[in-house]
Write a structure and sequence with these properties.
With 313 residues, the chain is of the alpha/beta class. Helices cover 45% and strands 12% of the residues.
Amino acid sequence: MTEFTRSAFLSAAKHFVEKDLEVSMAGRVFMITGANSGIGRATAMAIAKRGGTVHMVCRNKDKAEEARADIVKESGNKEIYVHILDLSETRKVWEFAEAFKRKYKALNVLINNAGCIMSERDVNAEGLEKSFASNVMGVYILTRGLIPLLEKSAEPRVITVSSGGMLVQKLRTGNLQTEIGRYDGTMVYAQHKRQQVVMTEQWAKTHSNVHFSVMHPGWVDTPAVANAMPDFHQSMKDSMRTPEQGADTAVWLAISEAAATKPSGSFFQDRRMVSAHLPLAWTHSSQLEQQKFMSVMEDLAKTFHCQSDGNLM
C-alpha cells in the first residue's frame, strides 16, 4: 500500500520519460467528468495548457464556472466548455450523451473521473442506489452513449479513474443496489471501482478501435477524500499525493503516444501497466461472470434510454 503515497510517486517519477507529455493537443477534443476539483481539475488544466479543447462535465455550476475561469486564465486556452450534469441522474446522462453527439462532430478522449462515496444508502429518482448510479451506471451510459462519436474521431481513447480499494473486491453480479446487508459506503465504492475495471476490460474486447484504460491515482489529497473519509484523510494527509501527482497517469494515458502502444483494457499506476489483482488474490472472476455483469448493465441501461430531444447544458 506504500506504493500509493506521495513518496512512491516521486520515486516512480524518476523513471518517467518527460518528453511523453511534451506534446501539443491542439485540435483534439477531451471530455472530463468531475473536472472542477481534485484530479479532474488537475487533468483539465494539464490538457488545456497543451492546447486541447476541454469539455468539463460537472454537477455544480458555480464551482465549474470558477474552475473554468482559473483554467482559462492560467492556460491562456479559451476552448474550455462547461456542461452541467449529475451522473447520478440516470436518464439525464443518456440525454446528455445523445445531445452531445448531435451538437459536436468529434470527441477524441473521454476521461471518466467523477465519483462519489455515500455515507448511507440513498436512491435517485429512477430508484437506483445513488453511488451505483453515479460511479457505475453513469460511467456505463456515458461511455456507451459516446462510443459512436469516439469511433468517428481520430485516435480515440477512454480513461477511467479507479481506486486501489478495488484490489480487495471481487466483482459482484448480484445485489448491485446494495439492498441486502449492511451499507458500508467505502466498501460499496471499492466494489464500484472493481466494476469499472471489468467494464474497461470488456469494452476493450468489443470496441477494438478505441483505446481503453483504467488507472489508480494513488492516495490523493482532494476535497472528496477529506469529506468522505475524514479519519483516513487526517491520518494520511502528510503522505498523500497532490491532485497533480494523482492526475499524472490519467494525463499520460490521455495524451502520450507511449500510452497508446500498451494493450487496450489495461490497468495502470504511475505510468506503468500493473495487475488489477493482488498476488494470490481471490478477486479474480470468470469470463462468464464478467459477461453476466455486462449483460445486467446493458439491460438496466436500456430501461432508462429515452430518445429525448433534450438540449445540451
